[in-house]
Amino acid sequence: MSSAFVNRADESGLQAGSPSLHHLARASTATATVRHAATVHSSRSTQAVDDLRERLKDYGDSPVVADFLALAATLYPTES
Q1: What is the pLDDT of residues 2-28, one digit of tens each?
Q2: Distance CA 8, CA 72 (A)
Q3: Are 38 and 76 in contact (CB under 8 A)?
Q4: Helices 43-56 and 21-37, interaxial angle, to 10°?
Q5: DSSP string spanning the chain?
């Protein structure tokens, strides 16, 4: 896996509150990341998806974030 893939999760810098266009763009990137991660199924890709899921959870009212969270839940179900 490329370091660019992992760094996307590390650099998201999301803060709680209203999503800006910047944050929505990051959510779109997160959705693409989870799709690519599903083709790898490594522990690092799982960690990246979990990190993105955690960073975006406060923005679940946004349609693009909700799409990401639903896709992540489908491709990477959490252990309960």
Answers
A1: 334 334 444 444 444 555 766 677 777
A2: 15
A3: yes
A4: 150
A5: --HHHHHHHHT----SSSPPHHHHHHHHHHHHHHHHHTTT--HHHHHHHHHHHHHHGGGTTSHHHHHHHHHHHHHSPPP-
36: tokens are 């690519």
The whole-number pLDDT of residue 21 equals 67
30: nearest Cα among 14, 18, 16: 14
pLDDT in tens, 41-58: 788 888 888 998 999 889
Which pair of tokens denotes residue 5? 């893939």
In single-letter form, the type of residue at position 27 comes to A
